[in-house]
Amino acid sequence: MSRDLGPFEADRIYQGDALEMMDAIPSGSVDLIVTDPPFAIDFRAQRMNYNRTGRHVLDGYREVLPDDYAEFTRCWIDEAFRVLSGSGSLYVFSGWNCLKDVLCCLDDAGFITLNHIIWKYQFGVFTRKKFVTSHYHILYAIKNPRRYTFNKVEHYPEDVWVINREYWKGKRKTPTKLPLELVRKILRFSSNPGDLVFDPFLGSGTVPVVSREMRRHFLGFEIVPEYFEFAEQRLRETLPRE
Ligand SMILES: C[S@@+](CC[C@H](N)C(=O)[O-])C[C@H]1O[C@@H](n2cnc3c(N)ncnc32)[C@H](O)[C@@H]1O
User: What is the maximum alpha-carbon separation in the chain?
Assistant: First the structure.
């Protein structure tokens, strides 16, 4: 792939702080960003939820403090706008607690939010005196309403997606992991083979894994060394399929 990615190479992931590393990506070099940033909630307290055996869940997930969340979000979303090509798109996952920060930062950066997708999954966190949360928000945003990729692979593509989380019974895992099917759907609609897909907050590496499967190029960052290695291992086991 001949695209200039500065110090980075396509089809590789890097361990480090996305806020520092995004700086070095040349402007306009990315076609699609799909990312699930930290949500400013305490995941250590929630490791045992979702019917998981705690010892299988990798430690060390890097969270952002609630007071720092707006600034953190502004930094990476401004950079996301810069690194995306003129026809690029962004899908950002958000829990409801910090959604307002994400929405404001998207607008302020110059993005046009086209859809507010609800991802409904099959289980949530146990609650005694409030409703159980069983959805995430996915904000689909673009730079230019006259030029962006939207492959209409479904006749009536709706903005509520019911997709089950994956159980990785007895396997090592990270505390948050997107279902492969969910990321496949995004890539099918908003990218083409050969495009470059970027995820600044990799976690277990679902976005590059699906990109490789679907013959898209990828780039990604993860700050926690154990998660980075976990993602690298998954990538080594993934072959192009479609
Ligand atoms: C919600 S998880 C991503 C999960 C991922 N989509 C998956 O399917 O596994 C967010 C990830 O961002 C990482 N992270 C937090 N701050 C970061 C930073 N400044 N730079 C890079 N990664 C960061 C966390 O360690 C965590 O693994």
Answer: 55
